């Protein structure tokens, strides 16, 4: 979870992630983790800036052969 997603927007000062969206995200991640667990896998969840967290995870895990990610669509005004 990137803490920058919980800051306020630049234009209107509104939260980027409100309580309903946050609940949906947490429930979705919990469900995904349980589904993966039933299939014999796991889900690693961390809080922090992805550019820092991913490097730390690679170092921690040691045997990483690939990293896959997506980029958030930027707001343009």
UniProtKB/TrEMBL annotation:
Superkingdom of source: Eukaryota
Q: Which organism is it from?
A: Erithacus rubecula
Name assigned to this protein: CRYD protein
Q: Domain Photolyase/cryptochrome alpha/beta, which positions?
A: 1-77
MF terms (GO), sorted A to Z: damaged DNA binding; deoxyribodipyrimidine photo-lyase activity; FAD binding
| Single GO biological process annotation from the record | photoreactive repair
Q: Which keywords describe this protein according to UniProt?
A: Chromophore
By its UniProt entry, which PROSITE patterns does this protein fall under?
PHR_CRY_ALPHA_BETA
């Amino acid at each position: 979870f990137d803490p920058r997603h919980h800051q306020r927007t630049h234009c209107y000062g509104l939260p980027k992630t409100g309580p309903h969206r946050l609940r949906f995200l947490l429930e979705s991640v919990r469900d995904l983790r349980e589904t993966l667990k039933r299939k014999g896998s796991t889900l690693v969840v961390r809080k922090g800036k992805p550019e820092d967290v991913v490097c730390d995870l690679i170092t921690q895990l040691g045997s990483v052969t690939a990293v896959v990610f997506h980029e958030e669509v930027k707001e343009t005004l």
